[in-house]
Write a structure and sequence with these properties.
CATH topology of one domain: 2-enoyl-CoA Hydratase, Chain A, domain 1
CATH superfamily of one domain: 2-enoyl-CoA Hydratase, Chain A, domain 1
CATH architecture of one domain: Alpha-Beta Complex
Low-confidence stretches: 1-42
Distance between the termini: 58 Å
């Protein structure tokens, strides 16, 4: 097996080799490829047909034992020399351990079963050299105090686990590597079990343990989850282990993943089973203003066809109050914050069977009941109905004084042309209420700064000390040969996610830069993907992204200098109230609403 060597802190390359973050809200494939394990000849096929474990109920003792087993299995996966060297098929070892642990009548018997299971790995070899946890630039240390809890583990098991920790091998992991020149974890050699039939309690528990331990050891934001992560493991054992169908299992995983509070982390392969389900939807864009679901756009090809109008507030669907539906759906929507959860619910809330749906709405202060018609979701232009930037050209001069550039259709190769065309204007509005179509952080940022300027700082995982994260050096924008000298107004909102947030961080260091809008998604850092049993695809934010002064962004997002939230009335009138405030940064407060509308037109 190829050794990874000792991985040092991330050396940031200030060039286009740092490609930012993959499009996180697109559906992920099931990650084909089962992987192989060296040193396990003759063992690879024992569980090809599944774990063979079927469960119909679980006692309190069994839930406690399975919770402890899940923590220990994950700890050994990333620490035991036999496992990190790739000499064991560690999923299969879990399936071997489960029957004895489930059969244990009490905590002591379960601990004995686990101790005997660990003993089958052989004597723990002395490490030479041994891994050491450096305190230099340490951001997070491993959360391993539980190894000393003899009241829970018993003396012998606690002593054994501590010995494993002392014998960990520096720079070596079979299931994880660190991406070169970037620093996010790459999860490898994980089996997909794509063709297994469900229910299968062993595989379902494996999914829970795999995800829980990835968060525990490789998630740089685990300290801002606001969750009792040990309690989460115990709480989800019954629902996931006893799920009686693949769809139920997938929804339970979605609820688990949502506890990480990371908008990058979802069951991307399985969004079709997230409620509400259906192949059809209304051909409209919906945006939450607070807790009010407002029709914000209507797909052009369906304009005038449906009963809904822009500015309508949806209050009920098929007889059920929307607030009640939101509370029912919310646990299955992974999001860094509530605004993003509502954003994603808005995209799916009209899903269902094709045909008529009944809605209660409020229009111009009056309530009404209407019939609307779902159409196949594939027929709706999602890039239009889910967008908040201006329709039309990527770059335009709104007047001799104001230029506008949206990043949803930007091309890095044309950035210099855009900025040259904006020369002489008083202000350049850069609209990142979208996901950038190209990585322009350095290409565009270099044309806005006078001197080398730091805009971000990362924390990255320590491969030799799972659960530890260290501060890396800052990332800077280097000045280019020319510079735009006017005001730079950056537009952001809940659609600004991941690479959009990273871009906003880089551009806001420009002189005279102002960020206008509302808080962004709060999920920054390169995507680290992995597979879960059933061929299911998930991911986490793999790098911690902070401002140079170590101010955090996760769950908080990019906080605007000038907060602006659209109104229901403004949406109904076809106005872009965020853009209007940006234009006032250029033209001053005396410009009239009518003059503003003439600059940018009607956004409907």
């Amino acid at each position: 097996m190829k050794k990874t060597g000792v991985v040092c802190l991330l050396s940031i390359l200030l060039s286009s080799t740092f490609t930012g973050v993959a499009l996180a809200h697109e559906a992920m494939p099931g990650m084909e490829g089962q992987g192989t394990v060296e040193g396990a000849e003759g063992e690879e096929h024992r569980f090809d047909g599944g774990s063979g474990l079927m469960l119909h109920d679980l006692s309190a003792v069994q839930i406690e034992s399975l919770t402890r087993l899940g923590k220990i299995w994950g700890f050994l996966k990333y620490h035991h020399p036999q496992v990190v060297s790739g000499n064991r098929q560690w999923d299969y070892d879990l399936f071997d351990a489960l029957p004895a642990v489930l059969a244990a009548a009490n905590r002591a018997e379960a601990n004995t079963a686990i101790l005997l299971w660990i003993a089958e790995l052989g004597e723990i070899a002395e490490c030479d050299p041994c891994a050491d946890l450096s305190e230099t630039d340490l951001y997070l240390r491993p959360r391993l105090q539980w190894l000393n809890d003899e009241a829970s583990l018993g003396t012998a098991l606690s002593r054994t686990l501590r010995a494993v920790y002392r014998a960990r091998i520096p720079g070596e992991q079979f299931y994880v590597s660190i991406k070169r020149n970037v620093g996010n974890p790459l999860f490898r050699n994980e089996l997909a079990y794509a063709d297994i039939r469900f229910p299968d309690a062993g595989l379902q528990l494996l999914a829970l343990y795999r995800f829980w331990n990835i968060i525990e050891y490789w998630f740089p934001y685990r300290n801002v989850m606001d969750e009792d992560w040990d309690g989460t493991l115990a709480a989800f054992i019954p629902g996931i282990a006893l799920a009686d169908s693949k769809d139920t299992y997938q929804r339970e995983l979605m609820a688990l993943i949502a506890r990480a509070h990371d908008s990058h982390s979802n069951l991307w392969s399985s969004l079709h089973v997230r409620p509400p389900v259906g192949e059809c939807q209304l051909p409209v864009g919906i945006r939450f203003i607070g807790r009010e679901a407002v029709v914000s756009r209507i797909a052009p090809e369906f304009d005038g066809w449906n009963a809904l109008q822009r500015g309508d507030v949806i209050e009920s669907i098929d007889g059920t109050a929307l607030d009640e539906l939101i509370d029912e759906w919310a646990p299955y929507y992974a999001a860094s914050n509530e605004a993003v959860r509502l954003r994603d619910i808005a995209r799916y809330m009209t899903r269902g069977e094709c045909g008529t749906m009944h809605m209660g709405i409020r229009r111009a202060g009056k309530t009404a009941r209407i019939k609307a018609h779902r159409v196949p979701a594939k027929a709706v232009d999602a890039s239009y109905v889910a967008s908040n930037d201006l329709p039309g050209a990527t770059f335009r001069l709104l007047s001799e004084r104001a230029a506008y550039l949206k990043l949803s259709t930007v091309m890095a190769s044309k950035v210099a042309d855009y900025v040259r065309a904006a020369a002489g204007t008083d202000g350049l509005i850069i609209d990142i209420r979208n996901y950038p179509s190209d990585f322009v952080v350095f290409a565009l940022g270099s044309l806005l700064v006078e001197t080398e300027t730091a805009f971000a700082r990362f924390v990255t995982a320590d491969i030799s000390n799972p659960g530890a994260f260290h501060w890396a050096s800052t990332v800077s924008v280097q000045p280019g040969s020319t510079r735009y000298v006017g005001k730079v107004i950056i537009l952001v909102d809940e659609l600004s996610m991941s690479m959009a947030e990273y871009t906003a961080m880089a551009l806001r260091v420009a002189p005279q830069a102002v960020v206008v809008g509302s808080a962004t998604t709060g999920a920054d850092g390169n995507l680290s993907r992995f597979v879960l049993p059933g061929g299911l695809g998930s991911a986490i934010s793999g790098i911690g992204v902070f401002y140079p002064d170590k101010t955090p962004t996760q769950r908080i997002g990019i906080v605007p200098d000038v907060p602006v939230t659209p109104t229901v009335a403004g949406i109904g009138e076809g106005r872009d109230e965020v853009l209007e405030v940006a234009l006032r940064q250029i033209f001053g407060a005396k410009i009239t609403a009518e003059q503003l509308r003439r600059l940018y037109g009607d956004v409907r």
